[in-house]
Amino acid sequence: MSGGAHAVKALAPVVPKAAPIVSTQAIERVLLRLIPSVSAAREATGEHLLVVAVIRQAFSDCCLADKHIRREAMDFLRGHGGGGLNFWCSAVGINAEFVREMAEKAGYLPAVEGVHT
Question: What global pTM score does this model have?
Answer without folding.
Answer: 0.76
